[in-house]
Amino acid sequence: MEPRPLTRHAPFALLGALLLLGTGLLATPASVHGQGVEVPFQVALFEPVQLRPADHEILVFRLNLIYGRNVSVKGLDVGLVNHSTGGESKGVQYGLVGYIEGDMLGWQAHLVNMTRGHFTGYQSGFYNEVGTGEGFQWGFVNQASSFSGLQVSFVNVADDLYGVQVGLVNVIRSKETFAFLPIVNWKF
């Protein structure tokens, strides 16, 4: 018996099944945790046109076709603009812009990466920014209020640093002597 070819309605059936899962008709019950409700996945066109409300925490996967916004994501966060509003996000965030208002543990790989809370891990992108953090920043411009680790970029700026900067312009504002050094700067 040969398999039947897909009909022209197959994409609509798949989309319908995803919507049913997203609305909770086929999903497992959500549990309350932290600031919002935990759910396994999210699909967003742009907020508020998304399967789950913005006050939910996503536990496994979030796909943001244009812009997605939730409390936090623990898992894989993929899309053009990925926005987490609080709590702690963990895992990998990949896309054009990653903006985390809370804490992040993992890897941010965007053109623009911004974490306002505490960051632990690896940021790779054109522009990387953390409030406080530890780990590795790799990009064209790296910015940190307080950072422990390695910054590699053309321009590295830290208000306070415990570590090494490698780049064309390296600034550690809290350093009493040689706050600016080309090629390599450090403070321990």
Give an overview of the whole structure.
The protein has 188 residues and is mainly beta. The chain folds into two domains: 18-23 and 32-110, no CATH class; 113-176, no CATH class. It has one helix and ten strands, in the order αββββββββββ. A hairpin with a 2-residue loop joins strand 2 and strand 3. It is elongated, with a radius of gyration of 20 Å. The N and C termini lie far apart (71 Å).
- How many E strands? 10
DSSP strand (E) fraction?
over 45%
Count the helices. How many? 1
Indicate the radius of gyration in whole angstroms. Answer: 20 Å
- Overall 3D shape: elongated
Label the structural class: mainly beta
- Can you write the helix and strand succession as a string? HEEEEEEEEEE
Topology:
Blueprint: H1 10-23, E1 31-33, E2 36-46, E3 49-50, E4 56-70, E5 72-84, E6 88-100, E7 103-109, E8 112-152, E9 155-172, E10 180-187
Parallel strand pairs: 2-4, 4-5, 5-6, 6-7, 6-8, 7-8, 8-9
Antiparallel strand pairs: 1-2, 2-3, 9-10
Keywords:
10-stranded mixed beta sheet; mainly beta; 2 domains; single chain; 188 residues; 1 helix; 7% helix
TL;DR of this structure?
This protein is mainly beta and 188 residues long.
